[in-house]
Amino acid sequence: MKTILFEDIGEIAYDAAANYQETLLKANLDLKSEWYKVQASSRAYDLATQNHLLFCSHPHVYTLGKSGHIENLLVNDTRLKELNVAFFKTNRGGDITYHGPGQIVGYPILDLEHFVTDLGKYMRNLEEVIIRMLAHYGISGGRLPGSTGVWLDADIKGQARKICAMGVRCSRWITMHGFALNVNTDLRYFDYIVPCGITDKSVTSMQKELGTIIDENEVKGILIEKFEDVFEADIVSEIPSVNQL
What we know:
The chain is of the alpha/beta class. It has one domain: Bira Bifunctional Protein, Domain 2 (BirA Bifunctional Protein, domain 2, 2-Layer Sandwich), CATH 3.30.930. It is about 30% helix and about 30% strand. The protein has helices spanning about 15-35, 75-85, 120-135, 205-210, 215-230, and strands at about 1-10, 50-55, 60-65, 85-90, 95-100, 105-110, 140, 150, 160-170, 175-180, 200-205, 235. The strands form 2 sheets. Strands 1, 2, 6, 7, 8, 9, 10, 11 and 12 form a 9-stranded mixed beta sheet that branches. Strand 1 (about 1-10), helix 1 and strand 2 form a beta-alpha-beta unit. Helix 3 (about 120-135) crosses helix 5 (about 215-230). It is globular. The two termini are about 30 Å apart.
């Protein structure tokens, strides 16, 4: 069983979370670089890089992926200030999305050489975690061909709606960024963007689908269970130092 260190870092500014991920990513890249310098017969790979899973939420923010289109942000800087929404360009894949209160954001920093060196398979595994968690609540999640993330009624014309967006970066098989699950999210903030650059699909949340406020801590616990199952890993809690964030 692989070990993944888990931290719930609560609400944190988007750029601070990105910097923390970059710190963990760089530590692993440095370890991997040193490992590659060692002769193959002497390598102790399992003692090298560490795997992390971060849960958090962000204050209102729109983020644009490296392949995104700025025209999918439908408001100007003045309106962003009125809405109290930040905006960042990021180095993840995908287009524009929203993060805010009521959303569970998951950032796995995994060395895929511990799991599977196939980025497509990694994305499908992330989706599978969300799909299994939603099933616990009686919500039937699925995939939309040609798109990442988790969708509801993806095969019904005019009814497809995204409940979980995904976008990742991978460097030397080490991942960062991840998923944004709409639990009790205020969906009105999606009205000011073209979510993920998709014009003919809508966005939903667990609260909207079930008609009640959802216990986010309970969802986090189930997500961890499903993550362990799908990635065949043991997730252990790690208390972050105040100097890390």
